[in-house]
Amino acid sequence: MFDFLKPKKNTSNFIYFYNTLTRQKALFKPIKAGKVGMYTCGPTVYYYPHLGNLRCYLFEDILKRVLIYNGYNVKQVMNITDVGHLTNDRDMGEDKIEKESKKEGKSAWEIVEFYTKAFKQDLKNLNIIFPDIFCKATDNIPEQIKMIQTLEKKGFTYRTSDGIYFDTSKVPDYGKLSGQNLEQLKEGARVEINEEKKNHTDFALWKFSKKDEGRQMEWPSPYGVGFPGWHIECSAMSVKYLGEQFDIHCGAVDAISLHHTNEIAQTEAVTGKKPWVNFWMHNGFLNLDGGRKMSKSAGDISTLNNIYIDKGINPLAFRFLTLGTHYKKPMDWSDDSVVSAKNGYENLLSKISALGNKIGKINNEWKEKFITAINDDLNMSQALAVLNEMLKSDISSANKLATALDFDKVLGLKFNDAIQKKVEIPASVMVLVDERETARKAQNWAKSDELRDKIKGLGYEVKDTPIGQEIRKI
Ligand SMILES: [Zn+2]
Q1: Which structural domain, as residue segments, surrounds residue 460?
Q2: What is the average pLDDT score of the chain?
Q3: Which helix (H) or strand (E) holds 397?
Q4: Quick check: is 11 in a domain?
């Protein structure tokens, strides 16, 4: 399906990414030449993803496409959190999935199956390339227990009345990802009431089922019946599928000081190898009017379905919208931005469609400019500017089309669909359109108008744009 997914020769291009761990932009160099191992934290499948969540998966998709475009063979692993994520991120409260199960009157297993399916459908609708491996926490319970046992042997764990905890005071560089020490992290932590924890930053590796709770998802373990803590699944599954050290780990910015910090602490404690991951990349939030972060707990349930699909708007307009803001920056979102991105995307598609369907050669000069933009920490708004300038340039329509289609391997905006639509215009109409093109070049405006009327008579409207004629069914 994706031809360009096939590995090509090793890249010689320089790519620069901002690394959260070192707090600077640095030259990307993989551990193994030509190959990239990439772990992307996936959804907790207790509800539909909101648009803020989807922005993160779009950023990761662009990152993956840029690496592939540069010739790397990418192996991407994404987890599906289907157990153990509690309503309070600091291991307190109810399991989000068990809670939703009671609310909807379905089993916990039905809940995760339903929302995993919904999540994958959103990825498809946004033209996001699926990870090479999707792995579920519940499919990897023995791996997680084994990792907890290793931590126990090495002296990193202790037991409380409700579970097995990781002792963060045993890790001298705990907090290095956010650049905060234990004291600073304490200031940022919410008020907690778990007084059995030795340090406020300690986190659960295994939680015991409560006798009266009636949990549906629970497993036996050397510590007692229960379920894994939220963070251990990512450590266990990434090591299983990508090895003890790999290249890139991504997520949204709110994962830095808690989830990813804990992943690093426990994985490096198990393997003894540092750094576990070379590049940490995080995307900014999607902010609502007034700068409020979009989140389900705040009652914002803007999903791809209710904002785009149900209203007949192509969901790729959301993909197009996210490309306009650098992934690291917070992105403002409003009803107006939905409309302007829809118009912008449709406008771009008509420009592509107006190029005809003859595919020429990729223009290397424009390709170089495009690569410079995308390899500079994914500067996609600059990449879109290069595309627009290229479309306005004086190279032939066939070469413009070839170059645009090449850029679309990274953009993922389905330019091919725009060409397909063009093909659907009957040959009888296309003959007149071509004739009109000749008349326009000869500045024979009377002939041009006459042909426009004839085309209209056949049920098609022709519009003149700076880059040529645009045809659509009336
Ligand atoms: Zn994770």
Answers
A1: 425-474
A2: 90
A3: helix 397-411
A4: yes
